[in-house]
Amino acid sequence: MSAIPALNTLADKLDRSGATEIVHPKHPRSICIINYKGGVGKTTTTALLGIYLAKLSKKKVLLFDIDAQCSLSLAMGFDPEKVSNTELTVYNLVEPKAWTKLKQKKLENYTQALKSIHLPKNLEIIPGSFNTDELDYLIAKTLLKDEKRYLTELFLYIKQLLLSFEEEYEYVLVDCPPNKMFLTQAMLRACSFYLPVTIPDQISIYGMPRLIRWVCQIDPPSDRPKLLGYVLNALNRAGGGMVGSQQRAHFDLIKGVMSTLQADERAVLGDKALVGEIPRLDVIARFLGEDKSAITEFNVKKSGQPTVDACMTAIRNVVIDRITRYNGN
Ligand SMILES: Nc1ncnc2c1ncn2[C@@H]1O[C@H](COP(=O)(O)OP(=O)(O)O)[C@@H](O)[C@H]1O
Ligand SMILES: [Mg+2]
């Protein structure tokens, strides 16, 4: 583990040397769902947002599972034990020996059609692999040979990989692990946008302003993904609003986030960086686990909390509106 933090600074060193100054296009509707903290709802948000974007889109929506825990693959109905052992996971797509061979990759082999009758037909996923952790070590080992060359190669490869899905896939969503390793960094840089997710409690919100500051410093600025705002997950409500401790944590988060925004982000987000709220609901936990048929209950109101349909439709619409405004169309 000790070699990794030192290597993380390479990206900055490289950028300062100007090696990545050439502007390369990105997939214009690619979103990195991120937070360096685990258990806050990144996978939940990726799965639900993917479903609700797919419901509206005439094209396809692609999900990337880059977390070694493979939770998104599980949430989409794959058995991670099985998919992890195939040659068609995110591991095989981004391992160093693939970096110069994008044209030879048959990408349609990786976007295995989901078999679930409950999920939208136009929703696809690049499944995760339990070996993704080792992949970061493999990348680190490759960088030791020639850091400048291979870091540039990695960033470029991931960007071109996401871009190659542009024609068929209207949206690409990347579900990140709770770390800042090379693959996470590369995906974050390769995406046009990022969407942090947090639970509104003091410990969960703690690192988010730092994450946003870190992204703001990405150089060259053309590589900087733009903030779509943040999602609050797992809300507990009392009398229609957030419980007191959650309200206080959210107040601190607003202060932290608003003070870090760039001018282009301020122009789109105004004074409201919040994208929307997802309540803590049993139906969500059941859906993410074994029970995909729970999706049929997404519009059923069982408590004082809003339904999944209500909150995810609102979140999806804000995401689409902000992407449209950032992209100037
Ligand atoms: N809104 C929610 N309602 C109910 N359960 C949730 C909700 N969000 C997350 N969970 C539960 O919490 C766990 C962690 O969420 P997850 O999305 O996997 O977090 P992360 O991807 O940030 O690690 C999941 O297993 C899920 O069952
Ligand atoms: Mg996750």
Structure, briefly:
The chain is of the alpha/beta class. Helix content is 43%, strand content 14%.
Keywords:
329 residues, alpha/beta, Rossmann fold, two-stranded antiparallel ribbon, 15 helices, 10 strands, disordered N terminus, binds adenosine-5'-diphosphate, binds magnesium ion
Could you please describe the fold and organization of this structure?
The termini are far apart. This protein is of the alpha/beta class. The chain has a single domain (3-326), classed as 3-Layer(aba) Sandwich (Rossmann fold), CATH 3.40.50. The strands form two sheets. Strands 1, 2, 3, 4, 5, 6, 7 and 10 form an eight-stranded parallel beta sheet that branches. A hairpin with a 2-residue loop joins strand 8 and strand 9 (241-242). Helix content is 43%, strand content 14%. It is built from 15 helices and ten strands. It binds adenosine-5'-diphosphate (ADP) and magnesium ion. Magnesium ion is lined by residues 42-43, 67, 71, 175.
SSE diagram, text form:
Blueprint: H1 3-8, H2 10-16, E1 30-34, H3 42-56, E2 60-65, H4 71-75, H5 80-83, H6 90-94, E3 123-126, H7 132-145, H8 147-163, E4 169-175, H9 182-190, E5 193-198, H10 202-205, H11 208-216, E6 226-227, E7 230-235, E8 237-238, E9 241-242, H12 244-258, H13 263-269, E10 274-279, H14 282-288, H15 308-326
Parallel strand pairs: 1-4, 1-5, 2-3, 2-4, 5-6, 5-7, 7-10
Antiparallel strand pairs: 8-9
Helix pairs in contact: 3-15, 7-8, 8-9
